[in-house]
Amino acid sequence: MASLALSRHLIPFALFLLTLTIPATAQTYAQTYANLSRGTSLTPLGRATSWPSPSGDFAFGFRRLDSNASLFILAIWFNSTSPQTIVWFANGDTPVQAGSKLELTSDGQLSLTDQTGNEIWNPGVSNASYAALLDTGNLILSSPSFSSPLWQSFSLPADTLLPGQVLTPGLSLFSRFMDSNFSTGRFALAAQTDGNLVLYPVAPLPSRNFYDAYWATDTMGSGSNSRLVFSTSGDLYYALTNGTQINITSNGTYSTEDFYQRATLDVDGVFTVYVYPKKESEKAIWGDKWTAVDVIPSDICTRVLTDVGSGACGFNSFCVLDENKRPDCRCPSSYLFMDSAMKFKGCKPDFELQSCELDESDSFKLETVSGVDWPKADYEHYTQVDEENCRSFCLSDCLCAVAVYRNGECWKKKLPLSNGRTGNVGGKLLIKVPKYNASFPPPPGTVGAMERNDRSTLILVESLLLGSSGLLNLILITAIFAMVYCCHSRSLMKHNQDTTMLGLNLRIFTYKELEEATKGFSEELGSGSFGAVYKGLLLASDARTSIAVKQLHKTLHEDSEKEFTNEVRSIGQTHHKNLVRLFGFCNEGTHRILVYEYMCNGSLTSFLFGSERPSWIKRVQVATGIARGLAYLHDECSTQIIHCDIKPQNILLDENFVARISDFGLAKLLRTDQSRTSTGIRGTRGYVAPEWFRNTAITAKVDVYSFGVMLLEIICCRKNLEAEAGDEDRAVLVYWAYDCYREGNLELLAGNDEEAMADMGMFETLVMVAIWCIQEEPSLRPSMKKVNQMLEGAVMVSVPPDPSSHITPIR
């Protein structure tokens, strides 16, 4: 199966037939080389793993990935440098495992197949008599009956140009995702058919469209034959159709006799010319290493400025140019990297955001930040105001994350902050951070009662003072104030203890409060094996908060109030945007009630299986959100939480259709000898991992299995079990999905989903991830952290085995 079904932005990996792009006077294939005849093959771990060029300067073959030692890419690399730098690769988005093979077949096709025999890549030509790797680093397929190669790697580059190579109109260089990850990255250099040479930021999966350009030759209209040339003498220039040459480099030319050279679109979006000395005399000066001699643009931090997208760095971060003119991504105060290993992914607040339903303005403050700007995040602008007004406007606005005050004007910015860079805003930039942990609304009437008690005490003091002598008044004042202080301290302490769990933002509700909030538990939102959920409304003096009240069955922990409270405490310490937020609980008598935030867009079940199919992009976003939430529960909580019942009914959607995992703590509230079904198995039919049926230990991998089933439901928009499907082979989605994948019939699995069909590369990736998750052997399933990385493109997705097979597990 040809698994590289890519979009138009991945043309460098599609490898169509093209004509020779190098002028006849510089045809680099006219040199001495060793022909590789039909029947020649390479394997990742065999005797022959690569082919060298005649001089030994380059090699072509399989390279093991540093990020995953079990995966390989087909590549060309400098063979005499340290490190041996890769300059071209064929299957960056689909690496292969041991057992794969590259062969020049008997009919003259160069074909890469994986360990199962499925074809992963071929250049799209046949009848080649031989293949050869030239001393220029150019791989060619040729035949004596043709004067020019049938195909050459120079015609379809990856992220690098070599001397003698030309980037012709319609072709692009794409950066890698990471230095050790060869999937498509965040930037592109495009030689456009309108005559312009342009650097673009690229949108992430699944769209990969181009954002606003951050550098260009501004030669639009110069002709459709303009092209970027890296000459054999080491000159890098843009040749216009009329013969004009625009120098791309500014620091001169380096002899190709003395230096190895390459021009690479790096991971950070900087197009860089590197040189590496060949001679010992030069190495004494330059060092035995690659040296950057030109960078374009000179300051990417300030050049990338897009109306959509995050900028040179990720959202909520800012870009700082280091001494080598490379971007360094950093987080502002009280923010943390989403992933410290991939700082370009941006930052997230290390605190609960200000509520829009409660008045929490007193819980936050604005800190002054110097030398930083987010120029594209403004949403409101005030004039003729002072700094105090500006601060007040931001603190009272739950959407405001940053305010800028300058010369009587105030700008408010909201999350996510984009295009962050160092710079002077010409005034003060103020970022909102918490003073302390924000609290939830106090119980109705509590504050008023305390105020009434204070007023009553004051009235008593006034009455006594008016009717007493001076000395007696002095004694009374002292005694009364001591009494007031003690009473107020005890009242405040009791209030804090009664309404919140110490150290957590969890409110302890009374049963009466929740009965009133739900109007006698009248509006049921749903029910399940744990209990029923009701809609409620919390009323405060200046705010109304919609809540979801889950009344647990009375069989749960009837005899252990302390254990219930301790487990709720552990659940209350979880904070993640893909988890439903727990407001508080009731543990009164036989009543065990949990109070959650209300999710207005219902469950994933209604979202997926309603009358209209949701958009493909929304479904992909939902899937990645669920994966992030589960990875947090498994790996980032102080104590690991295993959900045990992942299914669409337990995934809720907020007002922005962000996926939120619900009931993630209820498994912890069950006794070890309790069950949810009469079979003694926790979970729901169709989503239950096979190990539940065996006498084996249960681990977080049960959630991975359930996620895999649900992932297939999300991408196919159908339920896992459909007895009425009319076709026995399609009745169980997990079996049918693997059959379609194995037989190369993913279009059949996608059905009539035109959006998914237009993005078959991503569709196939999601299917492969799902198949890894539903492996019957738990050790073969990846962790949710690994799943999350595969979905985001940070880790390559290898070809999955039959779910019932047993092979070496991935880690």
TrEMBL record:
Residues 1-26 form the signal peptide. It holds the Pfam family B_lectin. It is found in: Membrane. Residues 36-154 form the Bulb-type lectin domain. Keywords: ATP-binding, Disulfide bond, EGF-like domain, Glycoprotein, Kinase, Lectin, Membrane, Nucleotide-binding, Receptor, Serine/threonine-protein kinase, Signal, Transferase, Transmembrane, Transmembrane helix. Residues 519-791 form the Protein kinase domain. GO terms for biological process: response to other organism. It comes from the Eukaryota. Its EC number is 2.7.11.1. It catalyses: L-seryl-[protein] + ATP = O-phospho-L-seryl-[protein] + ADP + H(+); L-threonyl-[protein] + ATP = O-phospho-L-threonyl-[protein] + ADP + H(+). Its main location: membrane. CDD domains: PAN_AP_plant, STKc_IRAK. GO terms for molecular function: ATP binding; carbohydrate binding; protein serine/threonine kinase activity. GO terms for cellular component: membrane. ATP binds at K550. It is a single-pass type I membrane protein. Belongs to the protein kinase superfamily. Ser/Thr protein kinase family. This is Receptor-like serine/threonine-protein kinase.
